[in-house]
Design goal:
Elements (H helix, E strand, L loop, with lengths): L4 H6 L4 E5 L5 E5 L5 H10 L4 E3 L2 H4 L5 E3 L3 E3 L1 E7 L2 H6 L5 H11 L5 E7 L7 E6 L2 H6 L14 H7 L3 E5 L1 H11 L4 H5 E6 L8 H9 L8 E5 L9 E5 L4 E4 L1 H4 L11 H4 L11 E5 L14 E5 L2 H12 L3 E6 L2 H7 L1 H21 L4 E3 L3 H8 L1 H21 L4
Parallel strand pairs: 3-17, 7-9, 9-10, 10-14
Antiparallel strand pairs: 1-2, 4-5, 6-15, 6-16, 7-8, 11-12, 12-13, 14-15
Length: 397
């Protein structure tokens, strides 16, 4: 998964999550790990364990959906601050909430990711402590990221903070909360996006190569933002500039991104363990060409609802309308299919690898039934084949 949490659990002297030769974040074991440490890693790793906590899955009130889970409130919204809205990939809600939390003193830091100053096509774990820091992390970061590399640093500091990450990153923090009581005391909010999987670096290298650019030549690289969806833009140290529309750079080529195998069997694109999820509004009126930027916001928990209401009352976010769950089924059919196929893919992977992830609370069997037996068999066989190829290509360490 490359989230970075295992480094904090084992200690940097024994295990480091670093870039490998394929351009991925991977744990590199530096010395033998004793059985208790191995058990602790397995207990928190979101690659192996994603269990929906009861307070998230059974919060009072709201709506419950087979595919998208528990939703206390769902609206279309955007950041009231024009600078935040423009810099972000869509409506800027997550950045606006980060700034609101920091400026009201609710948190001392927001843990997220930002472009590496040395290799700007890559993402690094980033801690924002003010508006400028939050804006530095605005905009989507496609590709590997290990946001939780600095999680234990913030826990050790003993100051309240929020976490912005992919659904699997959020699940890792929830896993750690079962073992480390500091998480419950210090983490004020868990915020996420709708996730279709992360691009791997070879796809980005190829994007650069088509323009005759190597990663080492980059001065800057921006996946999206500065408009919605905004250009994919990069600049070299010798002053060459390139910009592409979203469709030109990414388009419908997600199958070419080289998704990590674990992304292909993911059962939580919907971020059900977060307090709040925000993602591009794909209402028909917003998907053609450039727009000012709008988000669909799913409030998952009472904590997320309180944060969003406070931000709305303070004028940090603007709500344009309520959204129904039926609309999500229409606008996000690929996310619906991912949940319907999740059980078959996990099953096929387990039969090939002997590893069965610990999954609980996601209604996978019920979702699989809506996908049909033929679809189940097709996806199980496909996962069985991919699991074999993934295992054969995995470097031995």
């Amino acid at each position: 998964m490359g989230c970075g949490l295992c480094q904090g659990v084992a200690g940097e002297a024994r295990l480091r999550v670093e870039w490998d030769e394929q351009g991925a974040y991977r744990p590199h074991v530096l010395t033998d790990l004793d059985p208790p440490t191995q058990a602790a890693i397995r207990a928190v790793c979101p690659g192996l364990r994603m269990q929906l906590p009861a307070p998230v899955s059974r919060a009072a009130g709201g709506m419950n959906d087979l595919i998208f889970g528990h939703v206390e409130r769902m609206v279309e919204a955007y950041a009231a601050d024009p600078e935040i809205r423009f810099a972000s990939s869509s409506g800027g809600i997550l950045t606006a909430l980060a700034v609101h939390l920091l400026e009201t003193g609710c948190v001392q830091a927001v843990l997220n990711v930002a472009a590496s100053p040395d290799h700007p096509a890559r993402s690094i774990s980033h801690v924002a402590r003010d508006r400028a820091g939050a804006l530095a992390a605005a905009g989507s970061r496609y590709g590997p990221a290990a946001p939780l590399l600095r999680l234990h640093e913030l826990l050790d500091a003993g100051e309240p903070f929020a976490v912005v990450g992919k659904p699997c990153d959020i699940a890792a923090v929830r896993n750690l909360a079962r073992r480390d009581p500091r998480v419950g005391r210090l983490v004020v909010a868990l915020l996420t996006v709708m996730c279709g999987g992360q691009a791997e670096m070879p796809f980005i290298w190829e994007l650069l190569a088509r323009q005759g650019v190597t990663e080492d030549e980059l001065e800057s690289f921006r996946c999206r933002g500065n408009g919605c969806p905004g250009p994919t833009a990069f600049e070299t140290r010798d002053g060459r500039r390139f910009a592409f529309t979203y469709d030109e750079a990414w388009g419908d080529s997600i199958h070419e991104w080289g998704l990590p195998f674990r992304c292909k069997i993911c059962w939580d694109s919907q971020g059900e363990q977060a307090d709040l999820m925000s993602f591009d509004s794909v209402a028909p009126e917003h998907v053609e060409g450039e727009s000012e930027g709008f988000n669909t916001v799913l409030v998952r928990t009472s904590r997320g609802g309180g944060l969003f209401r406070e931000a709305e009352a303070a004028g940090a976010v603007v709500v344009t309308r309520d959204v129904g769950l039926d609309a999500l089924h229409q606008w996000q059919p690929h996310i619906v299919r991912r949940r319907q196929n999740a059980l078959s893919r996990v099953t096929g992977t387990a039969l090939r690898s002997g590893v069965l992830p610990n999954v609980d609370g996601y209604r996978l069997l019920r979702a699989a039934r809506t996908g049909g037996l033929r679809g189940f068999a097709h996806n199980a066989v496909g996962a069985w084949k991919r699991a074999g190829r993934a295992r054969e290509s995995m470097p031995s360490r």
